[in-house]
Amino acid sequence: MPTTTTDRRRRVAVVGISLSDCGRVDEATPYALHAQAARRALADSGLDRSVIDGLASAGLGTLAPVEVAEYLGLRPRWVDSTSVGGATWEVMAAHAADAIAAGHANAVLLVYGSTARADIRARRRTGNLSFGSRGPLQFEVPYGHSLIAKYAMAARRHMHEYGTTLEQLAEVAVRARANAALNPEAMFREPVTVDEVLDGPMIADPFTKLHCCIRSDGGCAVLLAAEEYVPDTAKAPVWVLGTGTHVSHTTMSEWEDFTVSPAAVSGRLAFERAGVRPADVELAEIYDAFTYMTLVTLEDLGFCAKGEGGAYVTEKDGLPVNTDGGGLSACHPGMRGLFLLVEAVRQLRGEAPGLQVRRPDGSLPELAVASGTGGWFCSSGTVVLGRG
Predict the structure, then answer these.
(1) In sequence order, which residues have a C-beta less than 8 Å from that of residue 378 and are 6 or more positions away?
(2) In the beta sheet, which residues pair with residue 130?
(3) Secondary structure of the chain in the HEC alphabet?
């Protein structure tokens, strides 16, 4: 049994991953999706459930993650309920990796599940236009400043500053759908064209419907463990090499530059701590609630210069991005950040259900990055993963 204390920082690996049923799931509860994903991830790891002494969960229950832990039959001694929107899971992964490295936990389960689509269809909830009207947000909500409008404003600013075009933004949606077409688990797989994206119904200028993420049901889980457990796992480990987190703003008036996301800081930190450069990375899983998020995050992670994202996303042989189809086409049940980690690990293991990234010689990639964004570019978490 691995020790719970250490005189050095232990290496941390992803040892288990899984999705629950995703897409259209009308008969399950969010708790059931949590449990399904957790059981599958544990089975994927080959470890016994008794090794889990940490739990990270957000978005479900009055006392998350206490209620989720009880439902799963766990009694963790390390917990995290950080909630910063879509970046939650990358931030939690950073916290969990630090806790394991320091000996405060040995194996931490990150788990998520949501029936966002089914709840609306069954009229258990309505679509949310904003996150609320208390605190600083009270100064924006009366003016109809909806969630999507904030992303749309940022996109328009980038277009104004750098000449980014609607066609370039549309290309992000086209490529996401092309990747989804190869993924049997994706919710929408029918190819789309730039013209079809541009001609769709307007949601918030400049975003038409296909510029926006889908709404699905689904869940997933990731199990992180200390290096001592790796010899007993069912599959080769994927190591957490470096992480970074950052929060920027909540009110738009406090956002200094609409063309810079918090990934500019979280990405720099993650790469520095991993000891790698963006040019070393072979694939990226990026939060894509809207097409602009993909474009600006690629810039801010350093894959291209600021203002060059429009040209970068149209490059024929560019970096593989959102290889499962992303939130724009594969699945988006709410806080999608944990799905980014699952897909990155699948790619590094060579287990991608659809598009599998390979090097020119046919070998598997060595380095991947998962970068989540929360709120309206309010927060970011970036995780660098590697096989070595």
Answers:
(1) 84, 85, 247, 248, 249, 250, 262
(2) none
(3) CCCCCCCCCCCEEEEEEEECCCECCCCCCHHHHHHHHHHHHHHHHCCCHHHCCEEECCCCCCCCCHHHHHHHCCCCCEEECCCECECHHHHHHHHHHHHHHHCCCCEEEEEEEECHHHHHHCCCCCCCCCCCCCHHHHHCHHHCCCHHHHHHHHHHHHHHHHCCCHHHHHHHHHHHHHHHHCCCCCCCCCCCCHHHHHCCCEEECCEEHHHECCCCEEEEEEEEEEHHHHHHCCCCCEEEEEEEEEECCCCHHHCCCCCCCCHHHHHHHHHHHHCCCHHHCCCEEECCCEHHHHHHHHHHCCCCCCCCHHHHCCCCCCCCECCCCHHHHCCCCCCCHHHHHHHHHHHHHCCCCCCCCCCCCCCCCCEEEEEEEECCCCEEEEEEEECC
The DSSP bridge partners found for residue 207 are 204
Q: Are 92 and 59 in contact (CB under 8 A)?
A: no
**Residue 333's CB: how many other CB atoms inside 10 A?**
29
Instruction: With beta carbons less than 8 A apart as the criterion, state whether 296 and 158 touch.
Output: yes
| pLDDT tens, residue order, the chain (388 aa) | 554 444 578 999 999 999 999 999 999 999 999 999 999 999 999 999 999 999 999 988 889 899 999 999 999 999 999 999 999 999 999 999 999 999 999 999 999 999 989 988 888 877 666 667 778 888 887 877 788 999 999 999 999 999 999 999 999 999 999 999 999 999 999 999 999 999 999 999 999 999 999 999 999 999 999 999 999 999 999 999 999 999 999 888 899 999 999 999 999 999 999 999 999 999 999 999 999 999 999 999 999 999 999 999 999 889 999 999 999 999 999 999 999 999 999 999 999 999 999 999 999 999 999 999 999 999 999 999 999 8
Q: What is the dihedral of CA 35, 39, 41, 47, to 10 degrees?
A: 140
pTM, to two decimals:
0.95
Torsion angle defined by CA atoms of residues 228, 231, 236 and 241, in that order, rounded to the nearest 10 degrees: 20
